[in-house]
Amino acid sequence: MKAAGPLSEGDKRRLVLRLVARLRCAKCEHPYDPHDFTLVHSWQDMWVLSTRCRHCNEPCHVVIFMRLDAELEPQAELVTDLTPEELRDESQRRPITLDDVLDVHILLEQADGNLERLLAG
Ligand SMILES: [Zn+2]
User: 39 alpha carbon to ligand 1 midpoint, in Å?
Assistant: First the structure.
């Protein structure tokens, strides 16, 4: 069994990809294409992604909290359909340092804002 410890960046990316691949539009229930998700922001174990339904054009925000349980597979909790105000509240749960912001900008630049490329990296 794998030793418990902080999730690696690779683990996080795999978790995120697995989760978004299961999502359906809340409005029309059309499945989302994981390729359409973009990473809006990430702070340590919390990632914010957004997409727009290809079918009905409904915007969707996804906040994913990731944690590693010593006994279990890596777990991730998914929160969707937040308003921009709620997203702002979520972001205030943790202090955001300049380094975090720079990290995200660098990641997004490398991936052209495309989550699939980011996850594949
Ligand atoms: Zn839809």
Answer: 19
